[in-house]
């Protein structure tokens, strides 16, 4: 059950429309290599013009899934539908998908221009049209003056742009991007992420990106599929993935989170505020909104809360009976925009709290060894049943 | 060329390292070549050594130089035998190199596409024939190709040839080509393999992804990228084949004309050292041209 986060304003959300027809459909896809199962009975729908991310650690099957769509691998079981048509057995050179490779795979013996023209030449387009398209693509990735260079004479960022231009030149129905920005440094990566979104929006194409970088996935995607060991654990928008992960794995994989094991005590706890559920986390009483928790009293669950939703202060809050903890500042991570406090409770459990550094102070009021109070509203945390 | 930046080792020691190969080349290549060049400008003599003039110190150097002339080269130009020998050698070398390329390329490609685990074994198998002496291997071909040899017996046994028919290959150009292709195959396969093996397999996936079927991708991607290997293999085979002596001598017939054989005849048969030297000098000049093409190609690759 997806947990509601209330009404959200969205321009583009075909997956919520009841009659929408998926552009790409993975149907009961299984891929085995000998004894190893890379992808296991997977179902996934991707819609037209969507920017879709496959996110997961290395070896989770995300690249295999993409390579099956490109045609480099055939599924052991199941089928892939593109615009309703089964594309099993269609060789990669006849599929309307193009791929941007992780290593870029630029042809080293051809100029930038020739690389970009390569796909168009395979379609036997007239020379003039190829020329126009190549120029258009090079303009799109801002590489006009490098047309006559060879890949070896370009920087990493420029090569990445050539690879992008080459994969876009044929105007594929689906563009597959395999860890496209992995080799770039942070600044360039961030810039390129926004450019990718821009290009995707301008050309109106469907993008499928494979990445292990959650920030990248969060920034660019309309939806993210989090994968683990060959199965999809959750498919949702970046905000849903972050704010309402459906299990411990997703909560832990995306961003920073405090997870505490606990037992559901009652439909209301602490002050007994209506509409809350009480959870006992080894002596720490916690309350969450009732709609966040479907578990019954006595169930073992995990209570999870993001560090930035935990308030930290030196003063004791008015009500300490629930959603509050007292402990010692064990460590501080100063990140510039944020500071992360590791607070050690009397029972040695550590809770992380992040605070935005809104004022320009070199010496922060809270420092190592201070005894502090942590508190959070009852709508800040979430309950993970699995 | 990589730029050598100043290092703590700059100085005499560095020059010594650079000098060693040059001294080696000077002693064992330039000096013998100069001796051959000098002999090629001399005249034959019934003496020991069999040519004149002989260098007898710097006192008589004027007299010594005045006796040198280009008469041997003039003779090479006059007698069509030599021109025919050169052309025939180049022809045989060119055809053999093409044959080697046609046979060697698929082998090298198959090796490069083989699973990584068995590649070292495959390379080992290419090198394996070197464990037997070259001469013995060529002699073995005599045993196979001669009219009453193994090939005839095999073809008779499987019924392609009648009991009285024999294979008439031995002492023909065909036998020479067989011998050359057999002997030089490793020299063609190894540089091709080296070039193909380091090729990134994702380039072919990229080509396929962009709509290029495999057979076309071979000519658009694989072959152009293996060109340095093709050129290296062709040169390594073409140059020594041009001067090849043993194979045409053992497997070829009387009409198989190769410059190496001519040279041998002049040197040992006619004992005409000056003319033989002139043949050798010209051979070297003829071969400098493909080497220069090779160098040029290598530069372009960089």
Low-confidence stretches of chain B: none
Main β-sheet description of chain B: 2 strands, antiparallel
What would CATH call the architecture of the largest domain in chain B?
Orthogonal Bundle
* Cα separation of the termini of chain A: 13 Å
Mean pLDDT of chain B: 88
Considering residues with a beta carbon less than 8 A from a beta carbon on another chain, report the largest interface and each chain's count: A-B, 24 and 17 residues
Report Rg of chain B. Answer: 25 Å
List the helices and strands of chain A in order: EEEHEEEHHHEHEHEEHHEEEEEEEEEE
- Number of domain units of chain A: 2
The helix-and-strand class of chain A reads alpha+beta
Specify Rg of chain A, calculated over alpha carbons: 25 Å
Kindly report the name of the CATH homologous superfamily of the largest domain in chain A: P-loop containing nucleotide triphosphate hydrolases
Order of helix and strand elements from N to C terminus of chain B: HEEHHHHHHHHHHHH
Spatial strand order of the main sheet of chain B: 1-2
Q: And the CATH topology of the largest domain in chain B? A: MetI-like fold
What is the CATH superfamily classification of the largest domain in chain B?
MetI-like
The gross shape of chain B turns out to be: globular
Indicate the percent of residues in helices of chain B.
over 70%
Biggest pleated-sheet summary of chain A: 6 strands, mixed
General shape of chain A = globular
CATH architecture of the largest domain in chain A: 3-Layer(aba) Sandwich
Write structural notes for this entry.
The complex is a heterodimer of chains A (386) and B (302). Chain A is α+β, with helices and mostly antiparallel strands. Chain A folds into 2 domains: 14-252, 3-Layer(aba) Sandwich (Rossmann fold); 258-384, Nucleic acid-binding proteins (OB fold (Dihydrolipoamide Acetyltransferase, E2P)), CATH 2.40.50. Chain A has 8 helices and 20 strands. In chain A, the strands form 4 sheets. A 6-stranded mixed sheet of chain A has the order 6-7-8-3-9-10, sandwiched between helices. Chain A has a 5-stranded antiparallel sheet with strand order 13-12-11-14-20. In chain A, a hairpin with a 2-residue loop joins strand 12 (276-281) and strand 13 (284-289). The radius of gyration of chain A is 25 Å and the shape is globular. The relative contact order of chain A is 0.11. Chain B is globular. The mean pLDDT of chain B is 88.
């Amino acid at each position: 059950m997806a947990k509601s986060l209330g009404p959200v304003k969205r321009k583009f959300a075909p997956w919520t429309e009841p009659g929408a027809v998926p552009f790409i459909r993975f149907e009961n896809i299984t891929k085995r290599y000998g004894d190893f199962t890379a992808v296991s009975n997977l179902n996934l729908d991707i819609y037209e013009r969507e920017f879709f991310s496959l996110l997961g650690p290395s070896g989770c099957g995300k690249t295999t899934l993409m390579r099956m769509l490109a045609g480099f691998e055939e599924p052991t079981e199941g089928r892939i539908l593109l615009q309703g048509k089964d594309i099993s057995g269609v060789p990669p050179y006849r599929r309307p998908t193009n791929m941007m490779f992780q290593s870029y795979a630029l042809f080293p013996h051809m100029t930038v221009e020739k690389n970009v023209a390569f796909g168009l030449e395979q379609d036997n387009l007239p020379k003039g049209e190829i020329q126009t398209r190549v120029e258009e693509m090079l303009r799109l990735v801002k590489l006009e003056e490098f047309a006559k260079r060879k890949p070896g004479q370009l920087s990493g960022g420029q090569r990445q742009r050539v690879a992008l231009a080459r994969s876009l030149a044929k105007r594929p129905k689906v563009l597959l991007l395999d860890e496209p920005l992995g080799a770039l440094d942070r600044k360039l990566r961030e810039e390129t992420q926004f450019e990718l979104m821009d290009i995707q929006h301008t050309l109106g194409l469907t993008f499928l990106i494979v990445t292990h970088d959650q920030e990248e996935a969060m920034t660019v995607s309309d939806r993210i599929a989090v994968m683990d060991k060959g199965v999809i654990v959750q498919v949702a928008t970046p905000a849903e993935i972050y704010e309402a992960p459906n299990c411990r794995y997703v909560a832990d994989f995306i961003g920073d989170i405090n997870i505490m094991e606990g037992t559901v005590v009652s439909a209301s706890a602490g002050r007994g505020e209506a509409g809350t559920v009480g959870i006992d986390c080894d002596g720490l009483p916690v309350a969450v909104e009732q709609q966040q928790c479907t578990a019954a009293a006595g169930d073992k669950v995990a209570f999870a809360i993001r560090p930035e939703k935990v308030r930290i202060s030196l003063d004791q809050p008015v009500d300490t009976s629930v959603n509050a903890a007292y402990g010692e500042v064990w460590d501080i991570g100063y990140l510039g925009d944020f500071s992360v406090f590791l607070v050690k409770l009397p029972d040695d459990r550590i809770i992380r709290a992040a605070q935005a550094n809104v004022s320009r102070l070199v010496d922060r009021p809270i420092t190592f060894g201070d005894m502090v109070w942590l508190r959070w509203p009852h709508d800040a945390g979430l309950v993970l049943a699995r | 060329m990589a730029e050598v930046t100043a290092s703590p080792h700059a100085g005499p020691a560095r020059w010594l390292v650079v000098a060693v190969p040059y001294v080696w080349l000077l002693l064992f290549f330039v000096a013998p070549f100069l001796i051959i060049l000098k002999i090629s400008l001399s005249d034959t003599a019934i003496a020991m050594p069999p040519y004149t003039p002989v260098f007898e110190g710097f006192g008589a150097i004027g007299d010594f130089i005045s006796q040198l002339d280009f008469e041997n080269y003039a003779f090479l130009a006059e007698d069509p035998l030599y021109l025919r020998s050169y052309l025939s050698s180049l022809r045989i070398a060119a055809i053999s190199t093409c044959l080697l390329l046609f046979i060697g390329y698929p082998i090298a490609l198959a090796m490069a596409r083989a699973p990584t685990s068995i590649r070292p074994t495959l390379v080992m198998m290419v090198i394996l024939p070197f464990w037997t002496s070259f001469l013995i291997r060529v002699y073995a071909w005599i045993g196979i190709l001669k009219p009453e040899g193994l090939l005839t017996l095999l073809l008779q046994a499987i019924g392609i040839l009648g009991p009285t028919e024999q294979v008439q290959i031995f002492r023909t150009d065909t036998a020479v080509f067989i011998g050359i292709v057999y002997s030089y195959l490793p020299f063609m396969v190894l540089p091709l393999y080296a070039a193909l093996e380091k090729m990134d397999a994702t380039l072919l996936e990229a080509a396929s992804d962009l709509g290029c079927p495999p057979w076309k991708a071979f000519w658009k991607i694989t072959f152009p990228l293996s060109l340095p290997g093709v050129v290296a293999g062709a040169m390594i085979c073409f140059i020594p084949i041009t001067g090849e002596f043993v194979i045409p001598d053992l497997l070829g017939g009387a009409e198989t004309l190769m410059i190496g054989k001519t040279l041998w005849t002049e040197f040992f048969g006619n004992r005409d050292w000056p003319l033989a030297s002139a043949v050798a000098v010209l051979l070297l000049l003829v071969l400098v041209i493909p080497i220069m093409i090779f160098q040029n190609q290598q530069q372009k690759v960089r």
